[in-house]
Design brief:
The protein has 298 residues and is mostly helical. It contains ten helices and two strands, in the order H-H-H-H-H-H-H-H-H-E-E-H. 70% of the residues lie in helices and 2% in strands. Strands 1-2 form a two-stranded antiparallel sheet.
């Protein structure tokens, strides 16, 4: 039974196309190269017999003799049947080879993966989250403060431009005039240039701040949801130092143990008995050696 996803399976036409592609690859596979060569040989001989018989039967000289067309036709049918049957059997065996089966199974897995794939928007979101999570935490914090700094700069530039344009701060008038000249270079009036510059500066504050906050918040919370995304965690003042009696397991939490001071002492050994047994064994070995030496003399 073919692969299924949500009650659906590939069509018969899909399987026919996949098997056709798999059979086309058999001459280039080291496990099926010989079988494909034998099939091609028998199929080629069958085709050659049929074409050759057709050419011979079209010769007028040979057609003049009544018996010749029958002989050519019988020989052609016999040869084509024999080699054609062999080619068909080898083709059937070629379809059942592991190379063809594995190729079709691989295509089935690809078909299933495509059907089970999440929507494009979901994959884009997950890909963006993975990219953000791959950024080191110090870099995330640096980007956060850099983004907030750019927002403050945008707010300052917009405010300075507004104060200079309206004449509230005469010292900032040259700055406003420079913006007006830049706008005139691209065809904007003084009012339009000033309003555009102030608007861009003002929009930089929420845009940069929100983007930086969202990226940093998402990344830091996914790394450790218990921690604040924008504050470095200080070590606890009551943290217990690692002692000799504390062992950490491969997991995140440590596992402590206590030494068993109430364990029974080991049973005392009888040193005198052991020494006596060793002495007796040594005497026995000495007597055996002496007896062997005496027997060699005679």
């Amino acid at each position: 039974m073919g692969v299924q996803y949500d009650g659906k399976s590939p069509s018969k036409g899909w399987y026919f196309w996949q098997k056709t592609k798999a059979l086309a690859k058999t001459p280039f596979n080291h496990t099926t190269r010989k079988d494909a060569g034998r099939f091609a040989k028998d199929a080629g001989i069958t085709t050659g017999i049929l074409i050759g018989a057709n050419l011979l039967l079209s010769v007028p000289v040979l057609m003049a003799a009544p018996i010749v067309p029958w002989v050519i036709g019988f020989a052609a049918i016999t040869g084509a049947f024999k080699f054609g049957r062999d080619a068909w059997n080898k083709f059937g065996a070629l379809k059942e080879t592991a190379a063809v089966t594995n190729y079709v199974r691989e295509q089935e897995n690809n078909w299933y993966d495509k059907k089970a794939r999440k929507p494009l928007l979901t994959r884009i979101k997950e890909g963006f989250k993975k990219k953000v999570d791959a950024i080191p935490a110090p870099a995330i914090k640096a980007l956060k403060f850099a983004g907030l700094g750019l927002a403050v700069v945008g707010l300052a530039v917009g405010g300075a431009l507004a104060l200079g344009a309206f004449g509230l701060v005469p010292a900032l008038a040259p700055f406003a005039a420079a913006v007006v000249e830049a706008g005139a270079a691209i065809g904007l009036s003084a009012t339009a240039a000033t309003a555009t510059a102030i608007g861009v500066s003002a929009l930089a504050v929420p845009a940069v701040g929100a983007a930086t906050f969202a990226a940093s918040n998402a990344s830091m919370l996914r790394r450790d949801p218990a921690n604040s995304p924008f504050k470095f965690k200080k070590p606890s003042e009551n943290a217990k130092p690692i002692s000799q009696g504390e062992v950490f397991s491969p997991g995140a939490n440590g596992k402590a143990f206590e030494f068993n001071d109430e364990a029974k002492p080991a049973a005392p050994t009888n040193d005198n008995a052991q020494n006596e047994a060793r002495r007796l064994a040594a005497e026995e070995r000495a007597r055996n050696k002496k007896n062997r030496d005496n027997s060699k003399k005679f």
